[in-house]
Amino acid sequence: MLLIQNGLLYTMESDRPTRGDLLIANGKIGKIADTIEPAEGMSCLNVEGKLVFPGFLDAHSHLGICEEKTTVSVDESNENTNPATPYLRAIDGINPMDSAFHNALAAGITGVMVGPGSANPVGGQFAFIKTVGRRIDDMVVLAPAAIKIAFGENPMTNYGANGNSPSTRMSVASFIREELFLARQALEEGGAPSFGTECYRELFEGKIPLKAHVHRADDIFTAIRIAKEFGLGLTLDHCTEGHLIAEEIAASGFPAIVGPSLASRNKKEVSQADFKTAGVLRKAGVTVAITTDHPVSRIQHLPLCAALAAKEGLGEWDALRAITIDAARICRVDHRLGSLAVGKDADLVIYDKSPFDVFAKALYTIIDGSIVWPPR
Prior knowledge:
The chain contains twelve helices and 18 strands.
């Protein structure tokens, strides 16, 4: 058992921090109170004057698939040979030895949604994982956690530049729509399951959403249109022009995962990229998370990205929510992660000052009740 004493607790279960103690037992949060008396067998960590947060969460990344550990970046996130690869599983491509996991822990990032890139209209299955471990199977919180679909320049360029289909936005949408149509038909007919369609079962059962790579407003609307046609869940990832159509996105009921706003505007469809997007969407009523899209922006800069969004209109509290409880809800792991509450996983980070201060340091990162940063 580990007793954290005298912390300023940002539980994210209320709209303000409170001073108190937090008891961890068997990898879970066992008790939160103004004061908890130490008992025999407890280890105590006095964090007087320090800030205690739920572990930070990145709702969209390619951590461990686009590796940083070698002199040349290793990118295995895109299977560029087939426009529809729903059966690909992120867990088969994530390397937990990637040095970026170390950077994540040092910043207090304890959970990430990881999956394929955006070269294919249908790219494969995301997984939500924790950021400590040597064996990916032991790090998984939810897998599959979503099925990746992609619109716009990336799939169009990947195939159209070689004279193949899809080369237009119409063709990209058609590929996705046909995949969903045939998968639904096969599942409804109840015949012998096939490898290519069985991977869609949890999607059509409503257990996981589509995860749509969308930057431009028209692509956002197309993703919404297709999800509504098939009655599916959806997250709008990147959502770069979301601030231009915030009311319409709010009316759709779908959440947005905004970013990487720290990256360059290196494509036409990201020319409107701005840190104000998250705030505009949140004010319109959209549930928002912040993403680094690692390695497009590096994973350890997630608090910085949230801080810049806060500065440009999201506000400090909603920016914290965007990398804790709202990120967890969007990724459908909020029953375990995203807030400090009794019964949830004991994943938390202790900072010396606001994590939105560029001079702030994560003093301790704790996952499943064990101190994983600093390394021992």
